[in-house]
From TrEMBL:
Pfam families (UniProt xref): BPD_transp_1
PROSITE patterns: ABC_TM1
Membrane-spanning parts: 23-44, 53-76, 82-101, 145-165, 177-198
All residue ranges annotated as the ABC transmembrane type-1 domain in the record: 19-202
Main location: membrane
Family: Belongs to the binding-protein-dependent transport system permease family.
Gene3D superfamilies for this protein: MetI-like
SUPFAM superfamilies noted in UniProt: MetI-like
Keyword annotations: Membrane, Transmembrane, Transmembrane helix, Transport
Membrane topology note: Multi-pass membrane protein
InterPro entries membership: ABC_transp_perm/SBD, MetI-like, MetI-like_sf
Subcellular location: Cell membrane; Membrane
Listed name of the protein: Osmoprotectant transport system permease protein
Length: 214
């Protein structure tokens, strides 16, 4: 207990600032990634000929280590928040895109035909049938993307842009385990907390008959 108290006395202000910076990167990146992925996922569900190519290209970025990718962007964009946000947004897109695309394609075709028979337009079918039925899949991708982004955002400290990674890297450099834990533990707590919040939001927006189904 004394060690924890001393840690907060020495690094409390720095920790709060790091958490807020970390959350800022996560919210902006996942928010942008969600919008892009949702639009792209809907578009690709209408263009199956191009879907495999585009999803494969975006998936390739997932195989590039975050350290390398941020390093490359740093060379061209410099030490600016846009460097981190660009990298994290690209990483955030894929899980949401894949799940949105898959969720829409998995909608029972008989339900779509029934909607057409009721006189619904393509837009109405999308928003009243396909997206609601794909909601669990979409939120599963959002949850995965958010949790991943929390961990990837640790790399922002590599180019001096703050976040909880500052504690981790400084702890490694000075062989200070308290600093490493001070950065790693809050990151894990943030990931679990945000995942829990997304689950609660999913529960609120998912139609009652579809809750608990995947």
């Amino acid at each position: 207990m004394r060690i924890i108290t001393k840690f907060f006395e020495n690094y409390g202000e720095m920790l709060v600032k790091a958490i807020l910076t970390h959350l800022q990167y996560v919210f902006i990146s996942v928010g942008l990634g969600f919008i892009i992925a949702l639009i792209l996922g809907i578009a690709l569900s209408r263009l199956p000929k191009f879907s495999n190519i585009i999803i494969t290209i975006i998936g390739i970025f997932q195989t590039v280590p975050g350290l390398v990718f941020i390093g490359i962007l740093f060379i061209y964009l410099g030490m600016k928040p846009i460097t981190v946000i660009t990298a994290l947004t690209i990483y955030a897109i894929f899980p949401i895109l894949k799940n949105t695309y898959t969720g829409i394609l998995d909608v029972d075709k008989s339900l779509i035909e029934a909607a057409k028979g009721c006189g619904m337009t393509k837009t109405q079918i999308l928003f009243k049938v396909e997206l609601p039925l794909a909601m669990n899949s979409i939120f599963s991708g959002l949850r995965m993307s958010t949790i991943y982004t929390v961990s990837w955002a640790v790399l922002t400290a590599m180019i001096g842009l703050g976040g909880l990674g500052e504690f981790v890297y400084r702890g490694i450099e000075t062989n200070n385990q308290s600093l490493i834990i001070g950065g790693a533990l809050p990151s894990a707590i943030l990931a679990m907390t945000l995942g829990y919040i997304i689950d609660k939001i999913q529960n609120k927006v998912t139609p009652k008959g579809l809750k608990g189904s995947e």
